[in-house]
Amino acid sequence: MANSNRKLSPRLWGVHAQQPKWLKVILGCLPFVLLLIGYLWASDVRHAENPNDKLLPGITQMVKTMSPMIFEENRRSGTYIFMDDSLASLQRLALGVGLAYLMAVWIGMNMGVYSGMESIGGPFSTFVAMVPPLALLPILFITLGVDEIAKVALIFIGTAPVMLRDIYLTTKALPREQLVKTLTLGGTDSAYVYRIVLPQLLPRSIDTLRLNLGAAWLFLIAAEAIASTNGLGYRIFLVRRYLAMDVIIPYVAWITLLGFTLDYCLRLLSRKVYPWYHGGGK
Amino acid sequence: MNSSPIKLHIEDVYKSYGDKLVLDNIDLKVGTGELCTVVGPSGCGKTTLLRLLLGQEVADTGTILIDGNPVSHPDPVRGIVYQKYSLFPHLSVFDNVMLGLRLGNSPWWLPWRDNPENKDFAMHMLEKLRLTDARHKYPHELSGGMQQRVAIAQALAKRPPILLMDEPFGALDPDTREQMQLYLMELHEELSLTIFFVTHDLEEACYIGTRLLMVSQYYTDDRGHDASVKRGAKIVADHPLQRQPLNTATKDSHEFREFIAELRQTGFNPANKQHVNEFNLRHPQSFQSLTTEEHLRL
Question: What pTM, to 2 d.p., does this model score?
């Protein structure tokens, strides 16, 4: 009775709007399609005026330029360039972010639990987090050389303090009742840290990691752009000199795809391993 | 009841936060096997008293003994059930209950080793609180009443000499609450537990307790009204209670209602200030040691 009089919820606009699944999919794809159409149209217009236009290459041209880089061994270096760049970049990223993550979780957790550690590390970590990492880049290159270490170090310095502070604050936010309870159940300090605090931090640390991967990519590309002999960022900045948009655009799309995939995998992992964290309640 | 050994002994305990005196010369003995309920108006310091017993806070002066030993930081001598944050969200119901048995059993860096005895005991506790079917669930999947039942099972699995409860049923709806009260009374009798139960609900306190303590800041004494005199809450009433057979109808009886009304008048009414000497400390284990000042006056 009450329902029969109710107006149908609108499909799209307003706070009462509810989209069915099929509409959600279509709406989600819409911006991508629009972007693609817009690009192809603009590219077409420019090529009609000047068949040698370099600024907005068409799809066929990108495929033509990219396929030797992907599928053919480079005569000079004897490597598959695209694969080589991707692996080099991913390795730097994994090393830098991985080390930063491990350090952030361990130190952040200890700072959150032990006030002694907090007193030692608190002001310093706040201070370090304020240093703009890119400003440190020259220092890193001068002191660590232009090899891998400097690039990994930049990613580390760029992401570790932020993750550390996030983990530290998450630890601080755990109710004190949990500590008291653990102690009354016969737990030691270490049992509290590694059996109660750490398992509750891990899903949150995955969120932090996901958020900081964006920054990590930024520092990776920046480091590779300045001094490197391979890597995705290196390639983009190398071919920029020849206005090779047919390489730059696929590379940027590839970096985006890699970032998206990493993020998706981490989210999936978190849902699988920590069902209690995603269960809605606290 | 008089002959039961003393479990808890508190003498001359003061506690203040900054300038404000919260607990003012608390003296108290509690015998083994009592379900001692503590009531009082909000902000009177009953939770502070519980925290002192727990070791979560330290008294300014005075002695607190459990089984004759002074209390310090929280340890397995006391079990605790809170109103909120009562369970560990990353552990299933079964793991939550097992936690106390595991923490003492194996060092933290090794995987848990469960001996079958402990497992059986945990299952027995779960069964007693009718949680067997929910044992694989996580806390967020449970109702508030079930969560509190798990919390009780968790605390009891460690078999603490004294169980402290801080408004454990405060967030539950009336029906669930009544059910939980019955559970608790049953457990108390079956396992002969000593329980220190803080609540703001007079009815609850009178219904489940075997002894009732009223803590209140509404009283007068001979210390005068000078600004320098700071008064904190005292135990203003101490009644032995006749535990009724497990029957919720008691709550509606005339005497029960009248008793509650009388108690409310004593402790919850700021306008009605009893003199210290008139406190109804009827319980045989009740005592009040004199301060030096009071000695001098006498």
Answer: 0.84
